[in-house]
Amino acid sequence: MRLHLISVGTRMPAWVNDAYHDFARRLPHECGLQLREIEAGKRGKNTDIKRLITGEGERMLAAIPKNALCIALDVNGRQWSSERLASSLTEWMASGDDVALLVGGADGLAQACLQRATLRWSLSQLTLPHMLVRVVLAEQLYRAWSIGRGLPYHRG
What we know:
The chain has five helices and five strands.
């Protein structure tokens, strides 16, 4: 089973890349986290944002591995506890199917991505910068894995 983080944006600050990779490297091979960066559409003052989001969505959908469970990170999704995520991660690992986690850009996810998703997950009711979502997601996946293994990382 592989976790595929499919995220809009290719030029992240060093601190984002460092923090993301720190947590991604901690995950074992059996649930490795792979980042697939999707080129963001070019924004300008006359940009058709709806068309731009649609193009980002098409590129994201093309990056989803065949037969993967698809989860959209969406502010309107359901919030999970770390323990709930740990339970879900254990189920995903047992199934052996890949999991694709979709993170939109600054203007959100395309409607087609939301429709493709089996689940919608909200990390918070707060609006988080999409670059920070990568870091939080990687950390929470590591936390979930450590909970499932009974490791002391999670002190919840």
